[in-house]
Design a protein that fits this description.
Blueprint: H1 8-11, H2 22-30, E1 33-37, E2 42-44, E3 52-58, E4 61-65, E5 72-77, E6 82-83, H3 85-89, E7 97-100, E8 104-110, H4 111-120, H5 122-159
Antiparallel strand pairs: 1-8, 2-7, 3-6, 3-8, 4-5, 4-7
Length: about 160
């Protein structure tokens, strides 16, 4: 990827890249690919092996659980949001399907790039993994809050 194609204004707001200086971020992005999908295209499919993290640069993705049976849309991702980071650092397959809600441009960061970074720049690798862990912790907290709200609503509904 060429430096002139790198949208630093978007990438500097991405939580996975928090604390990374501009030059290092540019070098990292040079190893990545820009990919595009049309509205309706599936970017990642639930249950498939995860080998990339995708960062939304433009457009929107929707994240859907149980896509092939009874789809449940759980979140919409806009520029600056990521998909795939949990699966890339874990060993599990994708837990949801990501669908382009409109035409999207994504930055693709492959697992192999992360593994290369782990060998030649341990500080950068540590920061990336820490940022991913923080993002996953935020999502877990948010999920816990949603479950708590659902539980309260079910209890209220049962009392009526």
């Amino acid at each position: 990827m060429n430096r002139e194609d790198i949208p630093l204004d978007v990438l500097q707001k991405v939580t996975v890249f928090a604390g990374i200086d501009e030059e290092t971020l540019l070098r990292l992005c040079e190893q990545c690919r820009l990919v595009s999908f049309k509205a309706g295209d599936i970017v990642v499919r639930e249950g498939t092996a995860a080998t990339e993290i995708y960062i939304v640069l433009s457009g929107k993705l929707k994240i859907v659980l149980n896509f092939d049976e009874e789809p449940l849309e759980i979140v919409e991702l806009r520029p600056g949001h990521c998909v795939g980071e949990a699966s890339v650092i874990g060993v599990q397959n994708h837990s949801a399907t990501a669908v382009a809600e409109e035409d999207v441009r994504l930055l693709e960061l492959r697992r192999t790039i992360l593994m290369d970074i782990s060998r030649y720049d341990k500080d950068l690798f540590s920061l990336l993994i820490l940022n991913i862990a923080r993002e996953l912790a935020r999502r877990l907290y948010h999920t816990d809050q949603l479950l708590l709200q659902m539980n309260r609503l079910e209890k209220r509904a049962g009392k009526k």
